[in-house]
Amino acid sequence: RHHVLSLADFTAAEYNTVLQTAASFQEVLSRRTKKVPTLQGQVVANLFFEASTRTRSSFELAAKRLSADTLNFTASTSSMTKGETILDTAKTYLAMGTDIMVIRHREAGVPNAIAAEMDRLGVKVSVLNAGDGQHEHPSQGLLDLFTICTLIDPNNPRLELLKGKKIAIVGDILHSRVARSNIWSLTASGAQVHLAAPPTLLPKLFAEYIFEEAEANSQHLITSSSPQSPNRQLFIHWQLEPALQDADFVMTLRLQKERMTAHLLPSLREYHQLFGITRTKLQLCNPNVKVLHPGPVNRGVEISSELMDDPEFSLIQSQVTSGVAVRMALLYLLGSSKVERI
Ligand code: CP
C-alpha cells in the first residue's frame, strides 16, 4: 500500500505495524531532542481544502519531527479562488517535488481521486486522507486505536488488546467520518462495538433496520457482508443507556451542525439530555471507563464541559498527543523508502 485512504481494508498486521511504529515514535517524542532524520529531503504537502486545527497541525509537526520539509496549503488563500482545479493544484505540488500529500476535503472521495491521478501518472507520491466529507478519517481512527491500546499496555500496544472490550460510539454517526474509520478499526480488533444515536443521526441503512426490527430491548445486531471485511458485527441502539451499560470506552462525536439541514438539527438542550455524556450517565459503565472525543467539541452538547476536563475519565488531550506519534508513523511508513511498508 502506498496510500492511506480508508481503514476498510486494513489488515491486523497493518494495524499492529502502525501501533508499534507509533509507540517507538512516542518514545522519541519523550526525549529532549524530539527529532529524527528519517525523512530528511522529503516534502510533505498539507493540502487542506476544509478547516482543521489538530489534524493539520499534528501532520505538520509529525513531518517536522521526521525532518521533512513541509508545505501548507489553504484553499481560501490559494489560486483555487481564481479557478484552478483540485487536480491541477495537486499536480502543481507534485511538480515541486512533493513526496506525500495529506488531503482534507469537505467532499467524500477527493483524496481517492488525487491518489488515482498520481497512480495514473505513474509517480511514487503517497496520498494520506486527512478527512473527506462523511467518508473516513483514517489517521483519527488510528490515533484513537493507539490511545486506547497504549492505555491498556503502554509498552506493547496491539490490536488484540481490545478483544472483548465494550466500546460505545455515541452521537452524530450519520455525518461522522471519524465514526466510520473507528468502526473499521474497532470491529477488526474483536471489540464489541455499540452505536447509539437518534435514528435521524444514523446512516439510513441502520435507521431503516431499526424501524423494521423494532423490539422491546431496542438493541439490534447487524453483520457486514462487505467482501473486503466480512462478518464485522455492530450493535445499534437508538437509546443511550443500553450502549453505555458496562462499556469500557465511550467515544463521543461532535454534532456536525455545519453538515445538517435545519430539519435534522435537534434541540441542543434535548440532545444533551438524551445523548450527552455526563459523569452521572457514566455510572452505567465499567467503573474504569474512559471517554474519547475526536474534537473539536461542542461543550455541554455531546459531552458535559465538566467531564471533558476531568482527567479521571477524559482521554481527549491524550488523543491529541497520540496524534503526533501516529502521524509520524504513517509518514515514516509511507515515505521512508518509497517501498510498500504497510
Ligand atoms: N479531529 C479532527 O479532525 O479535528 P480537526 O478538524 O481540528 O482537524
What does it look like?
Residues 3-148 form the Aspartate/ornithine carbamoyltransferase carbamoyl-P binding domain. It catalyses: carbamoyl phosphate + L-aspartate = N-carbamoyl-L-aspartate + phosphate + H(+). Catalyzes the condensation of carbamoyl phosphate and aspartate to form carbamoyl aspartate and inorganic phosphate, the committed step in the de novo pyrimidine nucleotide biosynthesis pathway. Keywords: Pyrimidine biosynthesis, Transferase. Helix content is 37%, strand content 15%. β3, α4 (110-121) and β4 (126-132) form a beta-alpha-beta unit. It has helices spanning 12-30, 54-65, 86-95, 110-121, 138-152, 177-189, 204-212, 240-244, 268-275, 305-308, 316-335; strands at residues 43-48, 69-74, 100-105, 126-132, 166-170, 192-196, 219-223, 233-237, 249-252, 290-292. The radius of gyration is 20 Å and the shape is globular. The chain is built from 11 helices and 10 strands. Residues 211-217 have low confidence and may be disordered. The chain folds into 2 domains: 12-137 and 322-335, Aspartate/ornithine carbamoyltransferase (Rossmann fold); 140-319, Aspartate/ornithine carbamoyltransferase (Rossmann fold). The chain binds phosphoric acid mono(formamide)ester.
